[in-house]
Every structure is written in structure tokens, then in C-alpha cells.
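Long-time lurker, first post. I've been practising inverse folding by hand and with some scripts of my own, and I keep getting stuck on stretches where the C-alpha cells seem ambiguous. Below is the full C-alpha cell string for one chain I'm working on. Before anyone asks, I'm not after the true native sequence, just a reasonable design that respects the backbone. If someone could post their per-position residues I'd love to compare against what I wrote down in my notebook.
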């Protein structure tokens, strides 16, 4: 039996070796995956990821600093319970609760910054130093400096500081226009005050905005590199160690990182920094138009082939756009030869141009492309006046779900009622809005509005509406 056992064992061993040899042969002779077989490329588009960014971090880290900004705040004043008669019923009288003014306290904000010149200029976020009376900077070599605010710009959320030092490590600014979605990036800063930290991710998107309509100029690079409180003003760099963005915001329901962070692109930072350093303020160009995005409904109403560009809803009389020949209903497709697909892109392009500069504006009018030139003026905070309204009510159109009345002091009809759930309500029309045109025809009465809706047939009705002093086109599919 021992002999038989050994024989069977030997046979099994032979079969196992033969099977292994066949498997090895199949692996060596079978098709190879491109990622496994391809040799590692020496170009920037290598198939295999880089195993370490330590050399990049060694170059970048010394130029990223921690910023402490102190501001005075008044401590909340406690209620004067002891002087309340009801309170004294139970706890006795006396002068125990004489109110006193609460003392002022100092609040410290923590952020990060980037050294951009060897003589001590540092760029950071406006919100890090806003309202600060004392600003100090800590370098990675443990040196500590008091800092002076050179200039700050709330619309871009950027500020420039200066410390008295020389021969400092500097981060060179890269070209953020060349950044591509999918590029690897590193975020460097001091999150939550734990000390300098480096996180890695990719550029998730470009041209993002997060606070539309608040007066800010946003063209964010979005990244999933971890950014938390304290990272504000820190560096977003590429794998060549170039500064491509200034970390500024996160989007999070909890206040912590969930992989949606935003950085101000380096090209915007460069322009703002140069102006703050030279002039202490930022000047921006202004075109003088009311604009809105092209929606699929508007594209259909305007018989456009593409849903892109920016629709002109109003033109300021005597402004740069008016003098350049831009008209209501023109579609702006490029500024200075650079394509613009939405109002934020147009606004940023115009604002980035200096007041007084001549800018080429490409518009689409009646299906034909025109090249116009506008001389920009300086952007200032202008208060728009509300339209004058009044008159007696008259029926508008049940198909849209609005009731209107004629205006006494101007063209158009005033919306007095909007039926809940109606096409007008879904399109955003509100009482006190003024309907100026229907399908490019002036409106003077409810009858004009009804006739215009009827002429639309199965197509959406195109209205020109004034709201809060600005005008915009609205496409509504009537019932």
C-alpha cells in the first residue's frame, strides 16, 4: 500500500506541474493589457501614476505660509436678569445685576498664503484678512513676521500682504488657462491649524462659480484635493510645482471636506495681485449690457442652431455697448477672440480688460456673425432704478397664467397677478414685472399680449420682461 500511495502521489505531482507549465505558457503567449505591457513613458502623459511627489513638495512647501489675522469684536452682552422685577421676587433685590458694557475681545482668523516675491509679497484670500487690525505670518522655518496689508479685493476674494524680509522662497505662477480637467494637483496649506499639510487630487472642473449674483468675479478651478478651514489662501500647484490656483472655498453640507473644493485660477490672481501691488485697488472694465444665458427654450424661440452664447436683454443708453452698435436680442459669442458660452464667462472677460481698452465683441444677429468694437469704461457700483408702474387692471391671458395692466409712464404692461402653477409662474414671472415685448413686438395692452401668444402657435412665446430695473428674455410654453 505504501508503494501505491507513493505512485499516486507522484502522478498527481506530475499532473500539477504540467498544468502549471500550461498556465505559464498561456500567460506569456496570450494577449497583454496595454497598461501592463506598455513601457513607462517619459512624457507627462505617462500611463503609470507617479509614485511620489516628494521632490515637488520640497520645492513648494517653503513658499506656503500660515497667516494669523486678529480683529476686535464686542463680546455679547448678557441680559440684565438681576434687575428684572420678576427675577428679584425670587432672588431678592440689590444692585447685583447692574449692566455694564461688554468688553471688546480679539478674534483670530487662521489662513494660509503664498510667497510670490523674494522681497516678501504674499498673496492670500480677502476673507482671511478682512477687517483685521493685526496680521502676522509664520514661515515653515519657524520664522515669524508682522505683515502689512498692501491691498485687498472682495469681488475676487484676493489680498496682498508684505513682510520685511529678503531672499525668500517663491512659488512661480503657472498658466491656469492651460490647466486641463483631469490634471493631477496638490493643495498645500495649514488646515484647522494642525500644521502644513499636502493633499493630492485632480482638477475636477474649470470655470465654476458658487455665489452667482453677489457681485463677485468667479472662475474657479474645482478640485477633489482635500481642502478644509485654514487652507484658504494656500497653494494649488501642478506636478511641475507651479502655482495654478489660490485655494478659496469648499462646498459641504457639514463644513468639512467632501471632495468639492475651489481655487481662484492663477491668471486671475496674477492680474489682481499686480493691480493691488501697484495701485492698492483693482479697476475693471464695463460694457453696459444686461445679459442672460441661452436656454433650450430661448434657443428654440430665437431659432438658434446651438444653445450657447450670451443673450443681450438690455443696452445702457450711451454706454460702450450702445456706442459699439450692440442691440437687444444680439447674442455675444466671443470677447477679444475668446469664446464665451455663459454670462459668467462674459462678465469675467470684460472685467479682466482695463477701462479705456478697445475690445473686439463677436455677436450673432439674425443668423449672421458681426465683429464690433467697444471702448470699455470703468466698472462701479451702480444702483439700478425700478421701473415706473401703475394703471387699471385688465385681463391678460389665461394661456400664460398672468393678469396685466398698462403702464402709465412707459411702454409695456405690468404683471399684477401670476396664477400658481401656471406657465408664467414656472418661468419665474412675478407681480410688478413689466412685459415689454411679445415675440419681438411691443406690448401696450393685454390684447397685444393675447395676440402675441396666439401667434406663437406650438412654439414657446418669447417675452422681453423688465424685473427690478433690468430686462431679460423669457420663453414660455403656453397651455
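-- Answer (accepted) --
I ran through it position by position. Result:
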Amino acid at each position: 500500500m505504501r508503494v501505491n500511495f507513493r505512485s499516486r502521489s507522484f502522478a498527481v505531482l506530475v499532473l500539477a506541474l504540467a498544468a502549471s507549465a500550461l498556465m505559464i505558457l498561456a500567460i506569456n503567449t496570450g494577449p497583454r493589457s496595454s497598461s501592463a505591457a506598455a513601457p513607462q513613458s517619459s512624457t507627462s502623459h505617462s500611463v503609470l501614476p507617479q509614485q511620489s511627489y516628494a521632490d515637488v513638495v520640497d520645492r513648494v512647501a517653503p513658499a506656503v505660509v500660515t497667516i494669523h489675522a486678529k480683529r476686535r469684536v464686542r463680546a455679547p452682552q448678557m441680559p440684565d436678569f438681576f434687575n428684572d422685577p420678576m427675577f428679584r421676587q425670587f432672588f431678592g433685590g440689590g444692585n447685583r445685576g447692574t449692566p455694564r458694557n461688554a468688553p471688546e475681545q480679539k478674534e483670530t482668523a487662521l489662513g494660509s498664503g503664498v510667497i510670490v516675491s523674494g522681497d516678501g509679497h504674499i498673496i492670500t484670500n480677502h476673507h482671511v484678512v478682512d477687517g483685521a487690525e493685526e496680521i502676522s505670518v509664520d514661515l515653515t522655518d519657524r520664522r515669524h513676521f508682522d505683515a502689512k496689508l498692501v491691498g485687498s479685493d472682495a469681488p475676487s476674494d484676493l489680498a496682498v500682504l508684505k513682510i520685511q524680509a529678503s531672499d525668500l522662497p517663491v512659488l512661480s505662477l503657472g498658466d491656469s488657462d492651460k490647466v486641463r480637467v483631469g490634471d493631477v494637483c496638490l493643495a498645500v496649506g495649514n488646515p484647522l491649524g494642525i500644521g502644513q499639510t499636502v493633499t493630492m487630487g485632480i482638477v475636477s472642473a474649470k470655470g465654476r462659480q458658487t455665489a452667482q449674483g453677489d457681485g463677485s468675479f468667479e472662475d474657479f478651478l474645482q478640485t477633489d484635493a482635500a481642502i478644509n478651514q485654514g487652507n484658504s489662501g494656500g497653494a494649488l500647484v501642478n506636478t511641475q510645482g507651479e502655482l495654478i490656483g489660490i485655494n478659496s472655498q469648499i462646498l459641504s453640507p457639514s463644513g468639512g471636506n467632501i471632495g468639492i473644493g475651489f481655487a481662484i485660477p492663477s491668471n486671475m490672481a496674477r492680474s489682481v495681485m499686480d493691480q493691488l501691488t501697484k495701485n492698492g485697488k483693482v479697476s475693471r472694465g464695463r460694457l453696459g449690457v444686461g445679459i442672460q444665458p441661452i436656454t433650450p427654450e430661448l434657443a428654440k424661440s430665437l431659432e438658434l442652431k446651438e444653445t450657447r452664447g450670451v443673450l443681450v436683454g438690455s443696452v445702457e443708453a450711451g454706454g460702450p455697448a450702445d456706442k459699439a452698435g450692440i442691440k437687444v436680442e444680439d447674442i455675444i459669442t466671443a470677447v477679444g477672440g475668446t469664446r464665451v458660452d455663459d454670462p459668467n464667462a462674459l462678465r469675467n472677460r470684460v472685467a479682466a480688460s482695463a477701462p479705456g481698452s478697445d475690445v473686439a465683441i463677436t455677436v450673432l444677429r439674425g443668423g449672421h456673425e458681426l465683429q464690433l468694437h467697444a471702448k470699455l469704461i470703468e466698472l462701479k457700483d451702480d444702483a439700478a432704478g425700478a421701473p415706473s408702474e401703475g394703471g387699471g387692471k385688465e385681463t391678460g391671458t389665461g394661456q400664460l397664467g398672468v393678469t396685466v395692466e398698462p403702464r402709465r409712464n412707459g411702454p409695456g404692461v405690468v404683471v399684477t397677478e401670476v396664477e400658481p402653477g401656471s406657465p408664467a409662474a414656472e418661468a419665474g414671472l412675478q407681480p410688478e414685472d413689466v412685459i415689454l415685448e411679445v415675440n419681438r413686438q411691443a406690448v401696450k395692452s393685454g390684447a397685444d399680449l393675447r395676440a402675441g401668444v396666439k401667434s406663437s402657435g406650438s412654439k414657446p412665446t418669447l417675452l422681453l420682461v423688465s424685473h427690478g430695473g433690468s430686462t431679460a428674455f423669457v420663453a414660455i410654453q403656453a397651455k
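A couple of notes from the structure itself: The mean pLDDT is 81. The longest strand covers residues 104-115. Happy to go over any region you disagree with.
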